[in-house]
Task: structure prediction
Amino acid sequence: MTVRSLDSAGWDALLQSYPEAHLLQTSSWAEFKQSFGWSPVRVQADHCAAQILLRSLPLGLRIAYLPKGPLGSQWQELWPQVDALCCRHRVIFLQVEPDLFEPLPAEVCTQWLAGFEPEEHTIQPRRTIVIDLTQDEAQLLAAMKQKTRYNIRLADRHGVTVRPSADIAGFYRLMQTTSKRDGFALHSKDYYQRVYEIFAPRGQSVLLEAVLDEQPLAYLMAFLQHERAWYFYGASDDEHRNLMPTYLLQWEAMRWAKANGAKLYDLWGIPDAEEETLEEQFTQRSDGLWGVYRFKRGFGGQVRRSAPAFIRVYNPLLYKAYQLMQSRRQGEVHAAA
Result:
């Protein structure tokens, strides 16, 4: 077995062999996260590969995060190299969030992740809706809820149009409006500016703008990696919401993804509850992700739940201290809210 490190160019070349790879395993994502305090390391074995992000803590310590990977199979080939790397960098723990949906194949837990402990709390959302883009447009529309189809046509009938945009300032202004209206946390303008600057020129992202008589009503930022696409960020104004611009915007994002070769479109993030519970409660609840579920469910697709996180601890004492620190921070956030 051969294990080797890869730079960004080598990693990009390798990803050509993994058309199903997640966006969070791309060199573009690593470059983006470098702007916000993370540094990437990449390793490859005979049957698998992984891009790992390291974040520095005080006293020369680090944490390690492997989002939506490793790629390939037989991940146990990687871990001796990863363990050595983590020890060199004084890593307290490694958190792996596999790019797999439940139910997990038995060999993932018993062989590929032997020596890791499962952790239900993940950084990325556990539950999502995935739409099959291999269908034609008529089939995609037919799979939607009737009200969603109606809203798409309503926006179109009232003169709402959708076009590509580079207006991050306008996008961020409406993100602030949406954040205030719906009560969700917001990244800085620099965060959205940086992700657009990295992904859009490479054809891995598009910012779409819904307008009426040149007035922006809503924005959507979608991402693409080979055969998969994701809806990460959306924003809308309080004005003209009755024209349903977000519905037409989402439909055009799906069409953009399909035209660029995506086979799957991931709506990325709904409440982590069983589908029966989601359907029973979405009309009564608007907290957390419940409001966006009401919107996203209308576009059809399949509700899926991703794998839990898996943790490997290198320094148990410092790991407990880190957990305590994070718990206190979350308590301060909730108290302030």
User: Anything to note?
Assistant: The chain has two domains: 4-123+307-336, 127-305. The CA atoms of residues 122 and 163 lie 34 Å apart. The radius of gyration is 21 Å.
